[in-house]
Amino acid sequence: MKLDWKPDRSSHVPIYLQIKEELKRRIEGGEWTVGTLLPSQRELANLLGVNRSTIVQVYEELMADGLVESVQGKGTKVVNNTWNVIAATSPDWQQYVSGGVFQPNKTYVQKINEAEFSEEVVRLGTGELAKGLLPVKQTEEVLASLSLEASHLSYEEAKGSLALREAVCEFVSKYGIHVSPSSVLIVSGALQALSLMTNGLFQAGARVAVESPSYLMSLRILTSANIRGVQVPLADVQHKPSVLRQYKRQQDVQMFYTIPTFHNPTNVTYSTAVRKELLHVCQAIQLPIIEDDVYRELWFDAAPPPPLKSLDQTGNVLYLGSMSKIISPGLRVGWVIGPEPVIHRLADMKMQTDYGASSISQAIAQRWLTNNDWFTSHAQFVRDKLKNQRNAMLQLLQEHMGELAEWNRPSGSFYIWCKLKHPVDMNRVFHRCLKDNVLIHPGTIYEGSKHSYIRLSYSYETGERLEYGIKALARVIHEMLA
User: Fold this and answer.
1) What is residue 453's three-state secondary structure?
2) Which helix (H) or strand (E) holds 54?
3) Helices (H) and strands (E) in the chain, counts
4) Which residue stretches, if any, does this entry annotate as coiled coil (predicted)?
5) What are the φ/ψ torsions at residue 122 (nearest 5 degrees)?
6) CA terminus-to-terminus distance, the chain
7) Are the C-beta atoms of 55 and 44 separated by less than 8 Å?
8) 294 has pLDDT over 90
9) Omega before residue 241 within 30° of 0, cis
10) Which residues pair with 228 in a beta bridge?
11) Cβ atoms 190, 333 nearer than 8 A
């Protein structure tokens, strides 16, 4: 539960009474409905920066007013036993919330999503560009160059703006991918593409092979669609792609999801030889591939090998690209490239769910992709900055965590996949760091058994904040090993 409110310490109204009235307002106003579990006394005290005794008094008075009750072993929850609530009984929204088809995020992920919007929190795991790396000035020029037309304020066709799809075709041709606009679908980022695929291309109970660890396993997209993610060790795929034959034979997996370029979270990149063998194996066993290629432009010293899609001559690969990692996550523009029947199916689903991506965002994206000077200049600027930030994080890690962990030197993207040398309780590490306003991504988010791993990111924090974060993380681990 998020409480985006703080008591006014300059007010003549006592702090405990301000808190009580705020909680009472949320309950009586229907924001916190019957059955809603309130934060624990300690948690609420920390959130509001007050003594626990203050929260004890607040909860006791709310109980006396009949608004909440204490449930042994569960905490304090809203109850329906006051006259004002009885007079206008609300639905049991908790029953609806818990009964929805779409599964809630993992607890870790929910906490991460909430904490990332606090300016006080040092974000050591965030997978997005820092605000200083976003092309504000160039995008202002893009907007100024747009001649606003009625079409920019209207719906686009199901597959997305034709001008943008043509621009995408031209853009990916430099990777060796040659397609027509009819084979392109514009989506609100690669995440939406995955959601459309899981709900539109599989029957309930289907199995999808996924590299382990994997970003996809941090989400509930598969389980919400009643699809099972079958985890295939990343090292097995990288060293012997033919391992997928046994997963196809023994577990009847119906598709393989892969991030072969700057893999998330490990930052591994498959060689050209591995890509060729992987595609050959999957074509031979008729196992379609979803290639997530959103990090491709974030290389430092040398461009990565060509995408799987560039080697695909049989329509075996569904290719995902995005503007989010290199230009702006706020544009919410990405694309799917694949056989026309698949694109038609996904486009129909997209029209049923949101009637297409923002027309203005598509117009901005189209300008970015067609102005090669703008894109090339900004991409190089981002690479240079990320490379410097990578070096800074590596130096800090060596200074403060050299005896605690080991890692590889990334050749691109955002992430460093750290393996701790000694076992620790990663749940405690996460919460202890968060208490110090440092946010990390435990490896268990990406695979349940990765208790000794942490995904760190050098894309967001710099300077003193980055140094503070690494020092705090090292201190927490040292204290837990003492």
Assistant:
1) strand
2) helix 52-64
3) 19, 15
4) none
5) -85, 115
6) 33
7) yes
8) yes
9) no
10) 207
11) no
Determine the Cα–Cα distance for residues 255 and 251; give it in Å rounded to an integer: 11
Write out the two tokens for 438: 């440092």
How far apart are the C-alpha atoms of 459 and 199, rounded to whole Å? 32
Total Cβ atoms within 10 A of residue 15: 18
pLDDT band at 109 (very low <50, low <70, confident <90, very high): confident
Mean pLDDT, range 295-315, rounded to an integer: 97
Q: Please give the domain boundaries of the chain with CATH numbers for all domains.
A: 15-99 (1.10.10.10), 107-127+377-481 (3.90.1150.10), 148-370 (3.40.640.10)
pLDDT score recorded for residue 149: 65
Q: Of 440, 448, 410, nearest to 218 (Cα)?
A: 448
Rounded Cα distance between 66 and 79, Å, is: 7
Give the mean model confidence (pLDDT) for residues 199-227. Answer: 91
Three-state SS for 136-176 is HHHHHHHHHHCCCCHHHHCCCCCCCCHHHHHHHHHHHHHHC
The pLDDT of 282-298, averaged and rounded, is 97
pTM: 0.83
User: Tokens in use for 139?
Assistant: 């995008």
Whole-angstrom Cα distance, residue 339 to residue 184?
9
- Give CA–CA dist 340/319, Å, rounded: 13
